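I hope you will forgive my troubling you with a question about protein structure. The record follows directly beneath this note:
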Amino acid sequence: LVYLGNSINKTTVCIDIDGSNVILDCQGYNITGDSGPDLGVSITGGNNNSIKNCNFYLWGSSGVSSSKNYTTIQNNTFYNNGGGLILLQPYTYVYNNYFENSSDIVLGLTISPGNVEIINNTFNWTTPGSSSTSAISLASGKYIDGIIFDNNKFYFYGSGISLTASSGDVNENF
């Protein structure tokens, strides 16, 4: 268990998790970038990691990028990032997060392989953007199976969930 004890400002990848069973609890502190092409948190090694209670601001690529299985992203705020989350492996759980004003290409989540649960999140886009803007979009050319979208809220211009060649449950989202 790793606790963040104060806010961090960084211009490159801020935190790189390269192990298993790591829980990063920011305790409400900020991880702030400079709108450059980097990541707030990059999960590149191990499995079964969690990121919780963090505020991600001004990351050009993404607040969090995970290329490992069994990642939990919970109770975070993503504000004004190039993309809120990039999820590249299956068995990822995204609960109770708030996404606001990520890029007008992808707001919030870009997801790849399946078995992903996206539950009780809020997506808010306060600046008019392209009509092709989506809160959640499928990574280009990927087939995703076993996605659960439940009780998410979408407030913005564009589409809420953009799924192509995918299957899953979409319940009580508005």
In short: Residues 104-108 have pLDDT under 50 and may be disordered. The longest strand covers residues 39-45. The chain has no helices and 22 strands.
